[in-house]
Amino acid sequence: MKRAAKGILLGVAITVGTLCLLEGCASALLFVRDYRSASAPKDLIRPHTTHDSLLGWVNRPSFASPNEYGKGIGLTTTALGFRGNGTADSVPGRAGEGVVCSGDSYTLGYGVSDEHTWCAMLESALPKLRTYNMGQSDYGLDQSALWYERDGHRVPHTMQLLGITNAQLERMTTSSNAGRFKPMLSLERGGVVVHDVPVPEQTTNALRDASRDRAKYHLRSVQAFTQLTGVDGRVSAAKRVDEQWPLVEKVLDDLAAANAAHGSRLVVAYLPVKRDLRPRSPEDRRRKLASYARRRGITFIDLTQPMRAMRPDSLDLSFISRVPRGAAPGVTDQYSNLGNAWIARALAARLSTESP
Amino acid sequence: MLKRPVWRVVAVLLALVLCVLGLEGLSSFGLLAHDIRNIPPAPKNFRQATYDTLLGWVGLPNLAMADNYGPGLRLTTNADGMRIHRPTTAALAPGEKRVICSGDSFTFGSGVSDDETFCAYLEQELPGVRTLNMAQRGYGIDQAYLWYKRDAVRYPHQLHVFAFIWADFERMAVTTFTGYPKSRLRLKNGALALENVPVPQWKGESKSATALGMLPDLRLVQLIERQTDQSETAKLARVDAQVWDIAMAVFKDLARLNKERGSNLVLVYLPAPNDLAPGAQDRRRQWLAEFSRTSGIPFVDLTDEIRRVPPDSADWMFITPNALPVQGSSGHYTAAGHRWVAARLAEHLRAMPAVAASLAVSTR
Prior knowledge:
The complex is a heterodimer of chains A (356) and B (364). Chain A is α/β, with parallel strands linked by helices and 356 residues long. Chain A is built from 14 helices and 13 strands. In chain A, helix 1 (2-37) runs antiparallel to helix 6, helix 3 crosses helix 14 (337-353) and helix 4 (141-151) runs parallel beside helix 9. Chain B has helices at residues 4-37, 105-108, 118-125, 141-151, 167-172, 208-213, 219-225, 232-260, 282-295, 303-307, 311-315, 335-350, 353-359, and strands at 49-52, 56-59, 64-65, 75-76, 97-103, 129-135, 159-164, 176-177, 180-181, 184-188, 191-195, 264-269, 299-301. Chain B is elongated, with a radius of gyration of 24 Å. Chain B is α/β, with parallel strands linked by helices and 364 residues long. The chains are: A alpha/beta (356), B alpha/beta (364).
């Protein structure tokens, strides 16, 4: 009896062990295949961007891609490389109070046409405004700040509206974004120091290596480790942001000073993205930003709560879920036309109550 | 000849590799077990069907749920489990005309109230006509046909709108759907034959279907999948190879049944979110149009028309993932979507002289 039980136990153990080994072999094989076949994503670097030795990448000036995000959903850039109609920033003394919109893809309007970005729609909501879109996809706060400090003065404006997203803060803490080279800032002796400049020309090897690095996340042991420890890429990124919070504040201080030097003022807007709308999404960063803005007397507009209060179907439709044919990769979950319109209206409502 | 220490190193290395591979496999099965254990219970509004020996499931009879999909979104059924938006009798009043709508959840109206389905809206589009919603959630073309064949005979009607979406072909190929067993049709010597009947009894709620859907997380399954063509075109082609001839036989038999019952049959392809952009299922629609031409069975395909609707408007025709407080309705038509379908469909029906005459509605 005892012998039979032992035999059964042994049989079960051998079966389980064999299955585990088979599964492990399959996983290893797939990993090796994925790793070896990993290549630089073809469409990651969009034709409308070009290398920039300070920022990593910027828009090509006077560029037009009429079907960038699907048929008829175009992207054009101005002579200064801002998003918008080709002549938008080249007419001196244009009427209206100038507003520079800075930020990442949510400000650039990744996925929508030029006239549907929230920055462009601010002009319809507040006709006295003349807006300039200095948003750029995948930018960190560091890049947005550096771009404004370098080129912001080239357009007449009295306000910089800085749209901050969670991801933008996280990108600030890394020296490359999915393999794309970028500058890196640090706080040294109370001042901001720019590292990794001149930013080298982008190489496909770096992009391929980043793709290879991502292959490891398909390994089930890596997934199990992440689940068991609760430490994933996002948690690590959040930790890095928290550690570098003094740098965030210093960058914002410098931006405020740069604005003041041009006779402009800094307004910080927190742009909620899908992850901010989930229950139990982290509130710390928004609170920290609000607290910082209060201390410095900077206008801070947090659109998270108002957006959470939207009707659920409107909220769903505020983000792109259906990708138009031929659209640039990564448009999913960016603001849709509806989302951009809502952001523009919400910002306009707040700005119209603010005194300059 | 290798010396003993070298063998030992090789053995240790081999053991290490086996341990790593074993750990990877163990992690994979562990994660799968964890995910299966955490499958949430089926939403309450799924529990509105009852077992049926022929069809697998049918609507519960005499349901009256005031807030089934959310505040004010009613679900009412008659004694035969058909969704109704007004008290209905089997017999028609003198001069009254009736349209029966068959189909799946898109016709049933998952996520909208009784009077917001396109079938109900058809009454407004075709004055003087009464409609009866004989659709059921999760049905394939086979089940919708079998239900009509068995139970519609009690309800005199002049028109049969047999509506389906692309996925209803896929459902014809299986003997279970989301864990619920169903019957399946096959062709034997050119005639339709039933399989899996009486349908095995189900107990209502099962995690097995969801668990099965998690198997592709296993790397072994992924490895096998990568050996096969996983493109949408290939997947649809595999299904078509199994069910296309059966579906055509079903449509022909439906035409025969309708003729016997003094009714006209119209096949309707309802665009689902997948159809908004050109894709693999377009070929199926072309085949259906070709079948309609050769068989003479009227066919209405609303896909091209919905593609012409501006995307911003089309977005509002489908229920978004978080729009309703209950699960299972996302991706179906909103009330606006149903209204649009009803308006377009009525337009097509009016343009069919035989149909317009049988319903005594004016042609346009």
